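Quick question, first post here. What does this chain look like in 3D?
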Amino acid sequence: MTTRHLTEMLGIDLPIIQAPMAGVSSPAMAAAVSDAGALGSIGVGATDAEGARAMIAAVRERTARPFNVNLFCHQPAVADAVVEAAWIERFRPLFTDYLAEPPARLSEIYRSFVEDKAMLRMLVEERPAVVSFHFGVPPAEAIGALRDAGIILLATATNLDEAGAIAGSGVDTIVAQGWEAGGHRGVFDPDAQDDRLGAIELTRLLVRSLDLPVIAAGGIMDGAGIAAALDAGAAAAQLGTAFIACDESLADLGYRAALAGDAARHTSMVRAVSGRPARILANRFAALDAGIAAADIPAYPIAYDLGKALHAAAKANGDYGFGAQWAGEGAPFARPMPAADLVALLAAELFAVQEKMHG
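> Answer (accepted):
Ran it through. Tokens below.
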């Protein structure tokens, strides 16, 4: 499927998508990106239906252009009181260091879209131009309802089997998330073997195997990276880490400082922060993860309940080292500027490379 086909379907001018980073991408960022001709995105997986409705309204106050609303489609967590109690005790000394108490118990802080009827009703009512899914796809009736509402659907795949399931579900476009990508891996099953395919090879595989547009994601930070993705057969590229340093980002000062420093050169895939594999900047949480067995970590997002509490306790004492500082392998190439300026720069770089390549 061609770039032109996808950009027309999404209602955008440029083959560039700003990744929907929950907790980082803001309505202001999404609107600025969309107004600049790319596809802005908001992540609503960490809020409820009314919170998501408010975020959609906030984007619409700033732009009339299409934007993407992203949802988490993980399998609902299975609680394990023994594992969760041990997890709290493992981290109690760190809380004590910050003169704080850990949570008395952990809870499933995010509700998966696969069982969130209120979120589905809200989306059908609000009808955002684009809705995307991470960690899987929702039930057929939800996909049918969204399609009937005229919404274009995207979903993330990290391998061919996941992509095949997405194609069979009625979703319009596949986001091919490479191992280089920052933030949470889009794997459907976090306990299954991960083939760790890079973005370019995964894109080539999906383009060859499936008759759906493919959006390449993972490690793409500039126009040359977008051009390489398009040359591999992608119809567009999705960039997340590239936007973390933008003015409209919700990243705090510690996150921005880590992104601009040596930590950006040493990202790693960790599970201890949230309960699911995710690529993070080198920080204190990342260092702890290496010594923890997956079986000792509570399910996602139950583990994240403690992770967020620990970050809050540390941050209150001036320590940002336990933040969920998600970032991809391209982190050293982040460029601080307004989001609209970054989109314009990416487009100029892309066109320059294409002109050089094709004359």
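The mean pLDDT is 97.
The domain at 3-75+111-252+329-358 is CATH 3.20.20.70 (TIM Barrel).
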